[in-house]
Design goal:
Elements (H helix, E strand, L loop, with lengths): L1 E11 L8 E7 L3 H7 L7 E10 L9 E8 L2 E8 L8 H6 L6 E2 L16 E3 L5 E3 L28 E8 L5 H9 L11 E10 L3 H14 L2 E7 L5 H15 L3 E8 L2 E3 L1 H8 L9 E4 L1 E2 L28 E2 L3 E5 L3 H9 L7 H12 L4 E4 L7 H8 L9 E3 L5 H12 L1 H7 L6
Parallel strand pairs: 9-10, 9-12, 10-11, 14-18
Antiparallel strand pairs: 1-2, 1-3, 2-4, 4-5, 5-6, 7-8, 12-17, 13-19, 15-16
Helix pairs in contact: 5-7, 5-8
Length: 423
């Protein structure tokens, strides 16, 4: 069985080799094993990772020793199963075992530089961010999927748009309504569109049975091995980056939403996607700028361990209900997330810090007014076409109300983009 264990390990930098970072990870090892292996090595940076302990059926541990080399923006791996003989010497593993080094990076990290010290992160604009509670990204970057639909993006031709939905486990109705309305995979006539729901693990096993059935029926769920909770949304987001990197590199654009969000998809196609012809690295979203850091007992309160030198977040970031991203950026965002100090508020981490660390990426402000559902319903039920690009759908029937109104109010765009049965 797989069991999550959390232990402290160390990054090691070889003296005299500027710009080269060597990292040792052990999977399925006791703390005593780590102490013995690293006893004679000088550690210069410490962080905590959630490692996976893999115990075979006969009770013996399967031990993999992995050496990662990061050099000039590429990641290489030296791996030996069962023993560490070829990876014992950090220098020799690189100099003498080139045959064991495999390029793991799909896209070189041309712009990202690791943290400058044990608790510092240098942003692209030169700002130094100090962490007093420092940890790199935990287990969602390499743990197994509980549910995975690898075939979802395998379409004929180009996949124009992949909609990534951060959904809560019990929101079965939310997911079904999205499938039936504006995110229907059969909606577009000359373009391919798919929807994928990201979720974590329920605490109730009977709910998991329902999720397995839902996944088998619709083949659009991806589930990570973490509790589905508000404080785990960053895990959910990075797992989405990972899944796209592994399974959906053919998606030209990624639209990340929450499961209570309605989007006028026709306006996205007509007004937003053409922007990328001149600005291919834009991330389009409503932006929070100079957002105040909450230290009180609010939903978004954080301790003084995070950003202790700031009263406002040092980065602008996207507001998560609507984020449009070029698909080509996702692998770079995933690789950068793995090397960036973890932060649990997902919008700040995923679409603020990570976006800031990738040079050339720009947050393009989408003028969206977040207003109460009642006002949005009034807008869509009005005589004039509602100009809202998105709206919240908290009531059971709101999504259908928005959708039916859009089909009437935007007949020309519907005819241009939608298959005839939706006219």
């Amino acid at each position: 069985m797989l069991q999550q264990i959390s232990i402290s390990i160390t990054d090691y930098i070889v003296a005299g080799r500027k710009g080269e970072t060597y990292q040792r990870l052990l999977s399925g090892s006791r703390m005593a094993d780590l102490d013995a292996i690293f006893a004679n090595t000088t550690g210069v940076r410490r962080h905590e990772l959630n490692l996976v302990q893999n115990t075979s059926t006969n009770g013996h541990e399967n031990r993999d020793v992995i050496l990662n080399k990061t050099l000039e923006g590429k990641v290489y791996q030296c791996q030996n199963h069962g023993n560490s003989s070829n990876c014992d010497s950090l220098e020799n593993s690189v100099e003498n075992n080139q045959e064991n080094l495999v390029d793991l990076a799909w896209i070189p990290l041309k712009y990202y530089k690791p943290a400058d010290g044990p608790h510092m992160l240098r942003l692209r604009n030169g700002t130094m961010v100090r962490y007093t509670n420092f940890s790199y990204f935990p287990f969602t970057t390499n743990s197994s999927y509980l549910l995975n639909n690898e075939q979802l993006c395998r379409v004929k031709g180009e996949l124009t748009l992949l909609i990534i939905v951060h959904t809560a486990v019990p929101h079965f109705h939310h997911r079904q309504v999205l499938r039936e309305t504006w995110a229907n995979k059969e909606l577009l006539k000359n373009k391919q569109m798919r929807i994928m729901f990201m979720l974590g693990r329920p605490t109730n096993e009977s709910i998991q049975v329902l999720l397995v059935n839902e996944s088998q029926q619709y083949k659009d769920l991806v589930q990570g091995d973490f509790i589905d909770d508000y404080h785990n949304l960053t895990h959910k987001g990075v797992l989405g980056f990972r899944w796209i990197t592994e399974n959906c590199r053919n998606a030209k654009f990624i639209l990340k939403i929450d499961d209570d969000v309605y989007v006028n998809i026709f306006r996205v196609l007509e007004e937003l996607l053409p922007i990328y012809k001149k600005h291919p690295d834009y991330i389009i979203c409503p932006i929070a700028k100079d957002a105040k850091i909450s230290r009180n007992n609010s939903k978004w309160a954080i301790s003084s361990d995070y950003f202790p030198d700031f009263q406002k977040y040092p980065v602008s970031y996207c507001l998560g209900p609507f984020v449009l991203i070029p698909g080509k950026l996702i692998p770079n965002m995933f690789e950068t997330a793995k090397r960036t100090p973890y932060f649990w508020i997902d919008d700040v981490f995923l679409f603020g810090i990570i976006a800031e660390l990738i040079q050339g990426t720009t947050l393009w402000p989408l003028q969206i007014i977040f207003q109460h559902e009642t006002k949005s319903l009034a807008c869509f039920n009005g005589k004039k076409p509602c100009k809202q690009m998105m709206a919240f759908a908290w009531k059971d029937d709101s999504m259908h109300t928005y959708w039916n109104a859009t089909l009437v109010q935007y007949k020309k765009l519907v005819k241009k983009y939608a298959n005839p049965r939706f006219h």
